[in-house]
Description:
The protein is mainly α. The chain has helices spanning about 5-20, 25-55, 60-70, 70-80, 85-95, 100-130, 135-150, 155-170, 180-195, 200-215, 225-250, 255-265.
Amino acid sequence: MEMLPLSEVEKLALKKVKIFRQSIIRYLLRSMLASMFIGFGVIVAFKTGNFFYIVHSPFAYPMAALTFGAAIILIAYGGGDLFTGNTFYYTYAALRKKLTWMEVIKLWITSYLGNILGAVAFAFIIFTTGLFAESSVNGFLLNVVEKKMQIPTMELFFRGILCNWLVCMAFFLPMSLKGDGPKMFAMMLFVFCFFISGYEHSIANMCTFAIALVLNHPGTISWGGVIHNLVPVTIGNLIGGAVFMAIMYYYVNKPFLDDFEKEQGG
């Protein structure tokens, strides 16, 4: 039982690497898809939350957290490639000596770049729809973005660690569940936990920021604010996925991994 999800992580990492080795363009497009899927989650979360926000209801954030779970279902079943999950998968594959560290770094950079491009493309499409043009509709989104851009750097860093630890769990634990229903429920529950807790997810943030920047926004929302948030959050996400998930799981399960290798060899 111990081995099942970890062997799945390795398989998933190697599948993703195969795409990267065959075509970097294809891999970039998969990464763009992932952040666009997150964009769908951002839109539904802030649209829903806004109904409660405009009447000053305390349910604005919980309702946004509940509906944002749509994003993880889209990524898990729609086949996108997300930088945050990759910090776990590729680090684990490298620890198992299935990938070189240089390849891991290239994969991280490519998926992050693709995620940025996807966020920008999605924000442009949302801008053209006019769905968020009215201040009565975009108030909640702009309020949250403004706050995110003013959080102290160290707080952002540690929120980034906790966020990706939980988000990687949201992908990892359901691997050992049977049936799509339980998997989806577990994924949405973990995503609700990360959102409601107020942790920081670099790719969700870049999608939210891109949308806020194309709208009629106050001066408190700026490119400087984007960098202030994304740099510590990205580093925190990287540590959450690579250290607290990949290194931790590799180390604590090393006896099982060694036995498994012997069995496979035998």
